[in-house]
Amino acid sequence: MTGSLMRATVASVAHPTPGLGVGTNPVTTGLQVDLSRLTGLFDAVPQWVWAALIVVVAGIVAAFVLGTLTTRLLIRVGIPEAIEGTAFERTAREFDTSTVEVLGTLVRFFVLGITFLAILSVAHVTVAASFWSRTVEFLPQLFFAAVILIVGIVVGDKVQIVVGERLTGIKLPQIGIFPRLAKFTVIYVAVLVALSQLGVATLALVVLLAVYLFALVFLSAIAFSDLLKSGAAGSYLLLNQPYAIGDEIEIGEKRGIVQEVNLFVTHVENDGEEFIVPNSTVFEEGIVRIRE
Prior knowledge:
By secondary structure, the chain is of the alpha+beta class. The longest helix has 39 residues, at 128-166. The termini are far apart. It has helices at residues 2-14, 26-44, 47-76, 79-82, 87-94, 99-122, 128-166, 177-197, 203-223, 225-240, 279-285, and strands at residues 248-251, 254-261, 265-270, 273-278, 288-289. The chain has a five-stranded antiparallel sheet. The protein folds into two domains: 47-223, no CATH class; 229-289, SH3 type barrels, CATH 2.30.30.
């Protein structure tokens, strides 16, 4: 019994199990098998698929980084404070966003669009062969056109606010139209520039803008003819000063002491009454400077 066991042991040493050599580590052998399988799997997948995956990852990361940098840069230069109160900013706030975030999102979509086109190129899609070159040229133009349009709307809103504040002291019902006209003029110019970025023929729109400006000046001259006459008369009075503050004058039936002279009107006070006389009336009726 003992002799047969010894012979079996010697036989096993002399003829080892196939696949396992003397001193071979089973764990190392298993890793080699797994690596060979992974290598085979990698070789089985076309190379353009791996290239497309790399482009996708790089595009997503670039879109996130560039969009975030754009938003932070606009915030750092003070854009949110500069456009506070504009109609575009209020509309953006209603959707729980802001103008700078909209521009950051626009940058992200632009980068993602470039990424999508790059994937089509890497994948050798036949439809994208001729489409790629034209789209690469058009996509930046579309991006800049969108940015110009948004900036034009925001600047137009800001111009409306500034012009409205400057004209607050003028008590004329027609004066309220000027802030809106200024806003739409800026937006119209922004639309022209945006369309020119897209290669759209804008000659007709430029002619229309010239007609619009001419009509604006012509109608303004008609609507504010009295104001313009008073302004012209006020310029003469301020330059030549036929009377000054403290002089006693008589304009038509109004007599009193001059309290103030500005571009449009002259303030005359007498016995607790203050007369605000348009400067055009001063020219039409003349003045009498009283010397006592």
